[in-house]
């Protein structure tokens, strides 16, 4: 293996363990700071899972408030406030601006995660940022806690 590949693998391992550790740290902190949120999560988990078994991956789709809580942790704390550098492969137009081929992009994910256009309470910790009026989990376009993904050409 090349040195660059080994370096990249080490970076991914460190980044992955660091964000997971920080997510759990901030989750414990916010549950302690917001007993009302902790009570709502406990009630939901008790109703869905009960005391006779451990939660499963299948439970995740019905643990709406719990899922919203963890999304809110990733949003509120912006564990990766800027994305890694991306380079566009084609010349593109973005909102009237011509972006030449080969341009470097660094997304400010922190700004996306604080956009009042997409989040009801962008500067407060509020799991309801991810729950609609029908009590359903919503996918927010601006929720990009770990980057913006692949850049597309034309």
TrEMBL record:
One GO location term (cellular component): cytoplasm
Keywords tagged on the record: Iron, Metal-binding, Monooxygenase, Oxidoreductase
The organism of origin for this protein: Dinothrombium tinctorium
Pfam families, per database record: p450
Molecular function terms from GO: heme binding; iron ion binding; oxidoreductase activity, acting on paired donors, with incorporation or reduction of molecular oxygen, reduced flavin or flavoprotein as one donor, and incorporation of one atom of oxygen
Gene Ontology process terms (BP): organic acid metabolic process; xenobiotic metabolic process
Similarity remark: Belongs to the cytochrome P450 family.
Classification via SUPFAM superfamilies: Cytochrome P450
InterPro entries tied to this protein: Cyt_P450, Cyt_P450_E_grp-I, Cyt_P450_sf, Cytochrome_P450_fam2
Keyword hit for rRNA-binding: no
Keyword Cell wall biogenesis/degradation: no
Organism ancestry: Eukaryota, Metazoa, Ecdysozoa, Arthropoda, Chelicerata
The name this protein goes by in its record: Vitamin D 25-hydroxylase-like protein
Alphabetical list of Gene3D superfamilies matching this protein: Cytochrome P450
């Amino acid at each position: 293996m090349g040195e660059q590949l080994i370096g990249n693998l080490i970076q991914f391992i460190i980044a992955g363990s660091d964000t997971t550790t920080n997510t759990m740290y901030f989750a414990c902190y916010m549950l302690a700071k917001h007993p009302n949120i902790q009570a709502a999560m406990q009630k939901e988990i008790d109703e869905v899972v009960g005391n006779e078994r451990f939660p499963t991956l299948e439970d995740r789709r019905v643990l709406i408030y719990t899922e919203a809580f963890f999304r809110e942790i990733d949003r509120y704390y912006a564990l990766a406030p800027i994305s890694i550098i991306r380079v566009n492969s084609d010349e593109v137009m973005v909102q009237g601006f011509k972006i030449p081929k080969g341009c470097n992009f660094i997304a400010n994910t922190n700004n996306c995660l604080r956009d009042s256009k997409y989040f009801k309470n962008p500067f407060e910790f509020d799991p309801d940022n991810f729950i609609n009026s029908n009590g359903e989990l919503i996918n927010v376009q601006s929720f990009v806690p770990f980057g913006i993904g692949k850049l597309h050409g034309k």
